[in-house]
Design goal:
By secondary structure, the chain is an alpha+beta fold. 38% of the residues lie in helices and 17% in strands.
Length: 444
């Protein structure tokens, strides 16, 4: 590397230019203004800070990789780019004061922003929702509702529902660490919250009591074996929602697997439709007891890798996995569709990189609000990716930060306007410029 002389004190160079695009995006989608309406001030004197804009700024900070209130300094110290940013004490008091009704209004505000974002995005006709839970370790005994969990640790056990096509965190429910992974009531609650966060045309026909003829956009819910709960499945059917979950081991399905003829197994498919390198699929001739009419059982078998610990469904040298679904169509395609549920692990991993693993407040209600802002940060990143090229369309938060969000630029004043000059030789400068062009901020 070239030897350089370093000086300090430049007031024109700014960092985190990509974070500014997230703030612009939040403003143009109406997230900041609807947040402001959701957190109404009821005291004697109006606060010096707009509480809704404050919360939107926290979401931008989390999207940029910050993990605590103190990290807001990265935005606060650049007022010409990010505006007036509240002090840590004000931010702390605001989040700590969010109660359940206010949290519901914040969720509704995010749903309104999603409706605007989806109006300009390519959304598939069928919306696929992925439900899964995660463990958040806490190393403090003074967090309200933190508890020991089934893996021997201590903390929280939140439940999530993601949109498969975009990775948006449609709903997030904070729960004590000892909450069950297979709670049908909790799973149904998080699906209801996810459906409520969709635009109205996507919600139509999927409320309790709605006629199936009202459906404009079918909804499918996927889950692992924790979703194989009678109450959860019955609730999905009641909402005219299709299901696809992994089954639990039982004698009826084991007998059906053993009865499959050797010639009935077909090679599993890859994403491109070609035969997969391993795995075979067959539909079982069985009507699972206690499941809704029309439920199908589709089994995939594979040879366990060397050294793998065998399970209860590993017989004759094969490992079996059964998908239960009420969808129609080709069994190979439905098995591939359920296998894609594994992408939910990446979505949770991205949340961990966006503030999920830090529950900084003592109060459970405040940590619920923090989790909502984590989900908002995930949505902002998803809406940003929608306007980027194919290379960054499904980029991780870490990749987006390195390539887009943390880029430096230069602020100059020209013609009584504040002008942000993007770097000319940054490899992803074109992608960043495309975002500003979409936001109507780029001039030539």
């Amino acid at each position: 590397m070239e030897s350089v002389v370093v000086t300090e004190g430049d007031t024109q160079v700014v960092s985190g230019v990509g974070l500014h695009t997230l703030g612009e995006l939040a403003d143009q989608l109406g997230l900041s203004s609807t947040y402001s309406a959701a957190v109404a001030w009821t005291g004697e004197r109006a606060p010096g800070q707009d509480r809704g804009r404050l919360l939107a700024q926290v979401a931008v900070m989390l999207a940029g990789g910050g993990s605590c209130v103190a990290d807001m300094a990265a935005l606060r110290d650049q007022p010409e780019l990010f505006g007036d940013v509240a002090s840590p004490a004000t931010i702390w008091r605001t989040i700590d004061g969010i109660d359940a009704p206010t949290l519901d209004r914040l969720r509704s505000a995010r749903a309104e922003a999603r409706s605007r974002a989806w109006a300009d995005a390519e959304v598939p006709p069928e919306v696929i929702l992925d439900v899964d839970a995660a463990l958040v370790e806490i190393h403090s005994a003074n967090k309200e509702s933190a508890a020991s969990h089934y893996k021997g640790g201590y903390g929280f056990h939140p439940l999530f529902c993601f949109a498969d096509h975009s990775g948006e965190a449609l709903a997030a429910m904070l729960r004590p660490g000892n909450a069950a992974a297979n709670s049908g009531a909790d799973q149904l609650a998080v699906v209801d919250a996810a459906i409520a966060s969709l635009p109205e045309p996507h919600r139509r026909g999927h409320r309790v009591g709605d006629d199936a003829g009202l459906i404009q956009h079918p909804i499918l819910v996927r889950a692992d074996s924790a979703g194989a709960v009678g109450g959860f499945i019955a609730g999905l059917v009641e909402r005219n929602v299709e299901f696809s979950v992994y089954a639990r081991t039982n004698a009826q399905l084991s007998a059906a697997i053993a009865a499959v003829e050797a010639g009935a197994w077909a090679r599993a498919r890859r994403e491109d439709g070609e035969a997969r390198h391993a795995g075979e699929v067959a539909e079982l001739d069985v009507k699972p007891t206690g499941w809704p009419e029309g439920t199908r059982a589709i089994c995939r078998r594979e040879r366990p890798h060397p050294g793998a610990q065998l399970g209860l469904w590993d017989a004759d040298g094969w490992r079996h996995q059964v998908t239960l679904t009420n969808s129609t169509g080709d069994a190979l395609a439905l098995e591939l569709r359920q296998r894609r549920h594994a992408r939910v692990e990446n979505a949770i991993k991205d949340l961990r990189d966006t503030g999920l693993d830090r529950m900084p407040f003592t109060s459970f209600a405040a940590n619920c609000a923090w989790l909502e802002l984590v989900a908002t940060a995930a949505d902002l990143l998803a809406w940003l990716r929608a306007g980027l090229g194919p290379e960054l369309a499904r980029a991780t938060p870490k990749a987006l930060r390195y390539r887009i969000l943390h880029v430096a630029g230069r602020l100059v004043r020209h013609g009584r306007r504040l002008v942000l000059r993007l770097p000319a030789y940054w490899p992803w400068a074109c992608e960043l410029a495309a975002v500003y062009r979409r936001l109507g901020r780029l001039t030539t």
